[in-house]
Structure formats: C-alpha cells, structure tokens
C-alpha cells in the first residue's frame, strides 16, 4: 500500500471532504447560535427530541429498504456478533485503565469508556459518509450496545437489580423499534407476497420501489437526523462550562481512552480477525464500527451517573471534553479509515 497516494486519495475525496465540512461546520454553527442566545435551552431539547424520536428511527428504518443478498446478510450477522463481543471486551478491559483510581471511580470510568454516543453522534456521521449501507450496519451493531447499556451499565451505576421494566423501556425506544422492524422486514422480503414493478419482483412493503413518493418523504425526514444532531451537539457544548472541565486531568485522560484508544482496539481486532477469516468484515463495516467506537461518552451513561450520584461532576466534564475531542478527531479517523480500506484484506 502506498501511504502517500492513499492519503492524497482520502484528502481529495469530495464525499469525505463534504461530510467533514458538514459535520464540523454544523456543530460550530450550533455552538455559535447557543452562545449568542439564538437557540434557547428549550430549543436544544426540542432538536434532540425530534432527532431521537423521528429522524434517527426513520434513518434506521429506511436503511433496511434494500434488496436482501447473501453477502450482505452474512456481513450483517458478523456485525451483529461484533456488536456483542466488543462490549464484553470493553467491559472487561476498560476498568483496567483506571487501576490507580478508587474502586467507585474506576467502575464509573470503565462504563463511561465502554459506552459511546453511537446513536446520536455516530449514526448521523456514518450516514453522511457511508450512506444507507453504513446506517444499516450501524443499526445492527447497535443492538449489542442497547442490550448492555440498558442492562449491565444500569445495574453497575444504580446498584439495583435488572427488572422487566428496563427491558420494556429498551424495546419501546423508537430507534430500537425501527431497527428491529426494519431488520425483520429486510430478512423476510423474499418470502412474502411479491409485486411486479418495472419487470422486478419485490415485497409489497418495499416502498422505495412500490410507493416512491412516500419513501422520498420518509428519506427527507430521515435526512434531518444529521443536521439536527450536529446542531444539538454544538449547542450543548455552548451551554456547558468549559473552564472547569479543561482543568480536569482525568477528563482528558478519559477522552484519550474513549476517542483514541477504543477505536484503535476496534480497528485492530477487525483487521486481525479479517486477516484470519474469523468474523471477517468488508471496508464499509470496518469504517462503520470504528466511527461508532470513536464517539464521545453516551448521554444515557452520563444520565445514569447523575441520577445515581456516581461521580456526576466527573461524568459531566468527561462528556464535554470527549465531545470536543471526538469532533476534532473525526477528520483524522475518517482519513485513517480510508488508509485501512487500502489494505489487501479489504479489497
């Protein structure tokens, strides 16, 4: 692999440059609007609500409106397994990074490092750079994330037992519902009544083909996910106290582990197992999972810390610094991924 030519290729790729400018530019715009009081705190909450209950669920659902192929099915199963395995690995390894801290702090930092904002921060970026296929992989990958976030992370942070109400809360999450419905319909599309459209046989619910005007509208709403999420991220940064967070060395150490070390672990595992044909992934799956791991701390994990008074100030500082770090690191990770995609194993 010629690294120089690969870097040139990445830096001259219009799609990549566009995605980076759109992401960083919109986050900066959100920060500016909040600082200038053009966006109120209530407006930021509204942006987040629309993103989480409308745009992201539709982004996940419409990504599954695509033909079912054997190769994509096998790859999706591998991504699903990776989505479970990586959190088991992180749950075991991440607390070891904080062995010098008190037991309670070590436990909290381990959880905050294991769980990133894969949905709110990661999926819009994946969609912007890697399209519907990337979103589909991200949705499948997130199944494991949701399982461990609403079970293990909750139990560790709250000290309570896992109950049925937690399963109900997880399953009724709009994004989870959209993912499972979309995945189910994608899997059974060749086994249910077909309709003939332009000499092609497709499932009657493949509205991307059977009812294109409805699909176009849903895609329009799904397309709101990225700009609204990025505006909200920037606005949230604009309403947080940066001075104290910058002085917190633990937040910087945490952010390095979350935004740099965790995606390196993910990339290393994927390269190694693909090389030896154990849960191999294609270049889009590699890119998707590395980007999902290079996200700042999960908002739900921070909410756990605050709700149960588990290092709540540290969690807030870690959220702010890791979001800034992830935003700055994003262009570099996209370029690194483009370099990794040039490896022979992904050809």
Automatic annotation (TrEMBL):
A GO CC term assigned to this protein in UniProt: membrane
Asked if Transport is a keyword of the record, the answer is yes
Q: Which UniProt keywords apply?
A: Cell membrane, Membrane, Transmembrane, Transmembrane helix, Transport
InterPro entries hit by this protein: Mem_transp_PIN-like
Major localization class: membrane
Q: Which residues form a coiled coil?
A: none
The portions of this protein that span the membrane are 16-34, 46-67, 79-99, 108-130, 136-155, 171-188, 214-238, 259-279, 285-306, 313-337
Source species, domain of life = Bacteria
**Keyword check for Transmembrane helix:** yes
UniProt topology in membrane: Multi-pass membrane protein
Which is a GO BP term held by this UniProt record?
transmembrane transport
Where is this protein localized, as stated in its record? Membrane
Question: What name does the UniProt record give this protein?
Answer: AEC family permease
Q: Which organism is it from?
A: Fructobacillus ficulneus
């Amino acid at each position: 692999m010629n690294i120089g030519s690969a870097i040139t290729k990445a830096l001259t790729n219009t799609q990549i440059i566009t995605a980076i400018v759109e992401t960083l530019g919109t986050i900066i715009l959100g920060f500016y609007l909040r600082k200038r009081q053009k966006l109120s705190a209530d407006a930021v909450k509204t942006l987040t609500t629309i993103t989480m209950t409308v745009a992201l669920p539709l982004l996940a659902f419409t990504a599954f409106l695509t033909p079912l192929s054997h190769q994509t099915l096998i790859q999706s199963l591998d991504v699903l397994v990776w989505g479970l395995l990586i959190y088991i690995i992180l749950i075991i390894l991440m607390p070891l990074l904080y062995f010098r801290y008190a037991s309670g702090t070590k436990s909290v930092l381990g959880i905050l490092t294991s769980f990133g904002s894969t949905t709110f921060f990661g999926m819009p970026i994946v969609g912007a750079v890697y399209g519907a296929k990337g979103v589909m992989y991200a949705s499948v990958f997130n199944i494991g994330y949701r399982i461990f976030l609403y079970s293990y992370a909750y139990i560790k942070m709250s000290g309570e037992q896992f109950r049925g109400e937690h399963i109900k809360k997880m399953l009724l999450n709009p994004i989870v519902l959209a993912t499972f419905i979309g995945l189910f319909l994608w899997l059974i599309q060749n086994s249910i009544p077909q309709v003939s459209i332009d000499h092609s046989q497709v499932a009657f619910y493949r509205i991307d083909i059977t009812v294109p005007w409805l699909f176009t509208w849903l895609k329009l709403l799904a397309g709101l996910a990225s700009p609204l999420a990025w505006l909200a991220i920037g606005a949230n940064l604009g309403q947080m106290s940066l001075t104290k967070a910058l002085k917190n060395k633990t937040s910087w150490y945490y952010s390095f582990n979350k935004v740099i070390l965790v995606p390196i672990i993910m990339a290393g595992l994927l390269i190694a197992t693909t090389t030896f044909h154990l849960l191999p992934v294609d270049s889009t799956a590699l890119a998707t999972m590395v980007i999902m791991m290079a996200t700042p701390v999960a908002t739900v994990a921070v909410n756990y810390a605050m709700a149960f008074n588990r290092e709540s100030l540290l969690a807030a500082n870690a959220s702010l610094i890791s979001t800034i770090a992830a935003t700055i690191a994003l262009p570099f990770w996209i370029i690194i991924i483009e370099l990794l995609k040039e490896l022979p194993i992904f050809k």
